[in-house]
Amino acid sequence: MALFDIPIHTLQGDPSSLEPYKGNALLLVNVASKCGLTPQYEGLEQLQRQYADRGFSVLGFPCNQFLGQEPGTAEEIQQFCSATYGVTFPMFEKIDVNGAQRHALYEQLTQVPDAEGRAGDVEWNFEKFLVSSDGEVVGRFRPQVVPEDPALVGAIEAQLPS
């Protein structure tokens, strides 16, 4: 199944997929509200604001698999992201990114290797997957790579459709 066709719900619980974002470069990120890396929301929002009008979007996927660092309800997650970091990028339902209940989206994403050639499980919160406008996963950036990292910014700019 193509990445754009995989069903997923929005954070508000509405059925969706990545289809509305087809034609855009995307940065898919598993996020958490109570993690030492949570301040990356600020950089992700900065990327969203900087490149949204050029055919780019960050997509957030809350995940509670790493030390229970995303315990909130959908409403609590939305409130935290909006009030604390001014997040405007789309957020989706809380999902599993590893293990037996791994969401189908992450079944595909985790097959892609990072810069060191390692594929497989997501290491921690805020792992980033760069998807081209035609749905190909073209980059994987581990959690320690901050949104402002020149390698990540350069990879995003190389994928911008306009």
The biggest beta sheet reads:
4 strands, mixed
CATH class: Alpha Beta
The N- to C-terminal Cα distance equals 27 Å
Order of helices and strands: EEEHEHHEEH
Mean pLDDT: 96
Notes on the structure:
- Helix content is 25%, strand content 17%.
- It has 162 residues and is α+β, with helices and mostly antiparallel strands.
- It has one domain (3-159): Glutaredoxin (3-Layer(aba) Sandwich).
- Strands 4-3-5-6 form a four-stranded mixed sheet, with helices on one face. A two-stranded antiparallel ribbon has the order 1-2.
- The protein is globular.
Spell out the key features of this protein.
alpha+beta, two-stranded antiparallel sheet, 162 residues, four-stranded mixed β-sheet, single chain, 17% strand, Glutaredoxin, globular
Task: Produce the secondary structure layout.
Layout: E1 8-9, E2 15-16, E3 25-31, H1 40-51, E4 56-62, H2 74-85, H3 104-109, E5 128-131, E6 137-141, H4 150-159
